[in-house]
Amino acid sequence: MPTEAVQEVIKYAAPTRLPAAPSFVAGIVNLRGRVTPLVRLRELLGVPNGDNDGGDAAGSEDKFIIVCRRRGLQMGMMIERVHTMYRVPQQDIDWAIESHLGISVDFVSGLLKADERLISIVSVDKILDCVLKR
């Protein structure tokens, strides 16, 4: 996720559920007077949780919230952990992944090659658009 979209990373806070919200929206929290929707990033991106008991992964696995602010709106994305933060030159990021892959990539805006790994760069704007549409 681009660092310019990240306001802060905080410890997990239990949200107030919203009855008509899509399943990937965990609910809302009050962060310093701002009502902030929380998104289950793992569910939205379709990443399996590795939990075979069928329980709620959000409460047992998500330990942090990445608070993002885009276009004047604030949103929190629930994550299990922060692996590493990279500061890389723009030329090391491939922003044209859709043209290379020939398919639509819903929430990924770029790829970074670090050593022998490919790291996906999540588009906060695309996630925000998805939350607003539903």
What does this structure look like?
It holds the Pfam family CheW. It comes from Nitratidesulfovibrio liaohensis. The chain has 134 residues and is of the alpha+beta class. The chain has one domain: OB fold (Dihydrolipoamide Acetyltransferase, E2P). The chain has helices at 41-45, 57-61, 97-101, 124-133; strands at 6-11, 25-31, 34-40, 64-70, 73-79, 93-94, 108-114, 117-122. The strands form two sheets. Strands 1-4-5-3-2 form a five-stranded mixed beta sheet. The model is unreliable at 52-60 (pLDDT under 50).
Distance between the termini: 22 Å
What's the CATH architecture?
A: Beta Barrel
* Number of helical elements: 4
Strand tally is: 8
What name does the CATH topology carry?
OB fold (Dihydrolipoamide Acetyltransferase, E2P)
In the residues, how many domains can be counted? 1
User: C-alpha Rg, in Å?
Assistant: 15 Å
User: Mind describing the biggest β-sheet?
Assistant: 5 strands, mixed
- Quote the average pLDDT: 80
Structural category: alpha+beta
CATH class category: Mainly Beta
* Biggest sheet: strand arrangement: 1-4-5-3-2
> Could you state the CATH homologous superfamily?
CheA-289, Domain 4
Low-confidence stretches: 52-60
Reading the helices and strands in chain order gives EEEHHEEEHEEH
